[in-house]
Amino acid sequence: MKVLVIHGPNLNLTGLREKEIYGQMKLEEINSLLLDKGKKLGMELDIYQSNHEGEIIDRIHQAMEVDCIIINPGAFTHYSFAIRDALAACQVPVIEVHLSNIYAREKFRHHSVISPIAKGQISGFGYLSYLLALEAAVELVKK
Ligand code: DQA
Question: What pTM does this model have?
Answer without folding.
Answer: 0.98
